[in-house]
Amino acid sequence: xxxxxxxxxxxxxxxxxxxxxxxxxxxxxxxxxxxxxxxxxxxxxxxxxxxxxxxxxxxxxxxxxxxxxxxxxxxxxxxxxxxxxxxxxxxxxxxxxxxxxxxxxxxxxxxxxxxxxxxxxxxxxxxxxxxxxxxxxxxxxxxxx
Length: 145
Prior knowledge:
- The chain is 66% helix and 8% strand.
- The chain is built from six helices and three strands, in the order H-H-E-H-H-E-E-H-H.
- By secondary structure, it is mainly alpha-helical.
- A three-stranded antiparallel sheet has the order 1-3-2.
């Protein structure tokens, strides 16, 4: 495998991804939610009963101090709650609230329209190929989560 070619392609992809994917997505976020906060909420969807702060920081590859600040902002906004283990009050988990779940649904519907506009110049074949590529990237990159 040619790692140099892969690296060069990824570096060329970053500004395109920023302009066509990330920037339009950031524009639909509201209620003081940052991309980092939204990513955290999306990750928490997988853990209905919550997840420990250390585990969450490790999964999101954030320092514990930064994870604590992020969790505080989510809790203050009503998007997450801290849950204490009954048998050991030192164990704290963070979980999504119903408000966060509704917010994620709202953003998903706004997001669809944003991406439709961004990709309306693509033909059907390119769109299908793009979808397969995104699904492949997701499958490969999420293996270590």
